[in-house]
Specification:
The protein has 350 residues and is mainly alpha-helical. It is 66% helix and 11% strand. The chain has a two-stranded antiparallel ribbon. Strands 3-6 form a two-stranded antiparallel sheet. A two-stranded antiparallel ribbon has the order 4-5. The protein has 13 helices and six strands.
């Protein structure tokens, strides 16, 4: 009974993490009516940094020194920070001149960007199922990028969102290189340095510090949609594992699109519904590809280990397998290996 209650609690955490992240796009759309896109992006990350930083104060003494970032991690840490400055600014620009519903679904293009960069830059293997998923998501992204009312011209807002996902795709691969380090430390660095860098660029470009109420709203949104979402994801993943948590978290883009209709009063076009079907098919294939890799049918005994109890970090969509795809979230999870024997067994990741 206790085990079932723990799993139910973990499922609730995973779904809440998805909903909290989904809130970002439609609520940011409202803030952008009053605040410059680059300034909103800056305070979103600063809010995550402040919120998780406060949480880190209570966790710091429990953290092993070897988990913290070292000088050898500097190149990938710098890449992560710089890309996290560019990506949210591009996203806010896309949302400001495009629709929040389209931007929510286009967030899944990060899966494509992450996978292709992992393949081209880091020579990681991509499965046939994942290539099929990439195809579906790419078709959906093209449809969402077209302005049907303007004679099939590309939408500028959607192109900015796609550029943002490409930045996050490369950032995911940089983050992977330091993924065995402190999750709290990585999120705090992302928040303060990426947020601070974005704010400096915004002010240099003529942006202005918003009224206190908008500044507080943006930071609160950043803490909830970035910081708290990540924290709940970690808790869910410690019980459910990577694959199952990814399956629940995959609802985030669709929740975001639904909220855009309610919060932003957006009218959905026929293009959107067609793109929704392709995006849904691609997302299902990504989840299936992730989960099927955790189903092993072999003559083996299952051995589970946890990297000495450490947690590690991947950012945005959270859908990954170490063999081929890393995406958005801080987490610890089990890794499985197999010792071959003469007995015929089937090992399942629970």
């Amino acid at each position: 009974m206790q085990h079932n209650n723990t799993k139910i609690k973990a499922v609730i955490f995973a779904l809440l993490a998805a909903v909290f992240y989904a809130i970002n796009t439609p609520v940011s759309k409202l803030l952008l009516q009053q605040v410059d896109p680059a300034v909103v992006a800056a305070f979103l990350y600063l809010g995550a940094g402040v919120g998780v930083g406060i949480m880190y104060l209570f966790h710091y003494r429990k953290e092993a020194p070897e988990e913290r970032l070292k000088k050898t991690d500097f190149p990938y840490t710098l890449g992560m920070i710089l890309l996290d400055i560019a990506a949210p600014v591009l996203l806010m620009m896309g949302i400001s001149i495009g629709s929040a519903s389209d931007a929510s679904l286009l967030g899944n293009f990060e899966i494509v960007a992450t996978t292709l960069m992992a393949l081209l830059l880091f020579k990681e293997r991509v499965s046939g199922r994942l290539w099929l998923a990439i195809g579906f998501i790419t078709v959906s992204s093209i449809l969402l990028s077209l302005d049907g009312a303007a004679g099939f011209r590309f939408s500028t807002g959607s192109l900015f969102v796609i550029l943002a996902t490409c930045c996050w795709g490369l950032e995911n691969n940089c983050t992977r290189k330091i993924s065995d380090k402190s999750t709290y430390q990585i999120v705090v660095l992302k928040g303060f340095l990426s947020g601070g860098g974005a704010l400096i660029l915004a002010l240099a470009g003529g942006g202005r510090i918003p009224a206190l109420i908008y500044m507080a709203a943006a930071m609160l949104l950043g803490f909830v949609s970035y910081g708290l979402s990540i924290f709940l994801y970690i808790r869910a993943q410690s019980t459910l594992g990577a694959a199952k948590t990814s399956a629940y978290y995959a609802v985030a883009p669709f929740v975001g699109a639904f909220l855009a209709v309610i919060v932003n009063k957006e009218q959905l076009t026929g293009f959107f519904y067609v793109a929704l079907l392709f995006m849904l098919a691609g997302s299902v294939m990504v989840v299936y590809d992730t989960m099927v890799r955790h189903h092993v049918h072999a003559h083996s005994h299952l051995i589970v280990h946890r990297h000495n109890g450490r947690v590690h970090t991947h950012f945005l969509m959270h859908q990954h397998d170490h063999e081929h795809l890393i995406s958005e979230g801080n987490h610890g999870h089990r890794h499985e290996s197999y010792r071959f024997s003469k007995e015929h067994t089937m090992a399942h990741k629970q």
